[in-house]
Design goal:
Mean pLDDT of chain B: 94
Low-confidence stretches of chain B: none
Order of helices and strands of chain B: HHHHHH
Number of strands of chain A: 0
Oligomer: heterodimer
Radius of gyration of chain B: 21 Å
Structural class of chain B: mainly alpha
Number of helices of chain B: 6
Shape of chain B: extended
Largest interface: A-B, 103 and 72 residues
Strand content of chain B: under 5%
Structural class of chain A: mainly alpha
Number of domains of chain B: 2
Largest sheet of chain B: none
Amino acid sequence: MFETIVNSPMFGLSLCVGVYLLSKWIQRKTKWAIANPVLLGAAFVIAVLSIFKLDYEQFNIGAKVINWMLGPVTALLALGIYNQRKILKEYFIPVVVGCLAGAATSIFSILGLCRLFEVDKAVAAAMVPKSCTTPIAIAIAEAHGGVAAIAATCVAVAGITGVVCAPLFAKWFSIKDPVAQGLATGACSHALGTTKAREMGELQGAMSSIAIGICGMISVVISLFITV
Amino acid sequence: MAILKQLCFVFAICLVAEAISSVLPFTLPASVIGIILLLVLLAVKAVKPKDLKEVSDFLLDNMALFFIPVVSSMIQYKDVLFANFWAIVLICLLTTPLVFFVTGHVVQLTVKLLRRKEKKDV
């Protein structure tokens, strides 16, 4: 019976959705930034696979169906960009200049540090897009032969850093302009940071939200011209 | 039915995006082409955001679910993760504040210059 269960597509599907619901519940209850549903969910899956000595492939029979939905989820990011066209027009120059600066700083500082620390190529390619929103980061990482799991994990870590530290960074670096605060938060910590930016103020939230899409697209363009 | 139509539409966009990605002379990921395609369709008003409401609300609200399979595959890459662990941690700790610092100051400077220009124009 055990064999039937773990080799059924329903095993991966129910485990994946189950750990997601559990992680969301833990996040709601604790309200900790570190209780991130992506990291927590994956930790639960890895724990179950390790305890029952199962292969990732057995989980993936079902989980790959959920993974197939990544394309559609990514395409729908267009809605976020489109819905912000009004405020984007209003703040066009600061948004484009800020996102260019943010995306370029992120990509080239990571590339440089990866060379300095002699990080493996598969890891370096995964880290390069870590300031982007997860679906775009996975796409960029895979295009350069990076490990998607490491890419998505680093993205989540960057996001959590933003949630915890964005107001502190603003204070330490004396970033007082609300437009600058929002764009900086969005540029370094994407959608997760945006939740914090919304607490800092309405304009900060809107700017951070715009930075997710614009930084993502700019990073895609820059990544076309780099070799890891 | 409405939901199935929306799903079918989004699936079709992704399929077309994959086709485009396969013939492009450079590696632009299919999912990114999907964003561009949908953005173009929205811009020319071939689709309205409300035409995709149910599916987009569901998928975007539960976005984290769709990353769990990818991140769980870390179990296959734990050797490469542990071999580079401290470099990864250090790079994460250094670059996030750096990006905040540079973006924040560049935007502050841009806003200041724009204001000065506005005053001159007036």
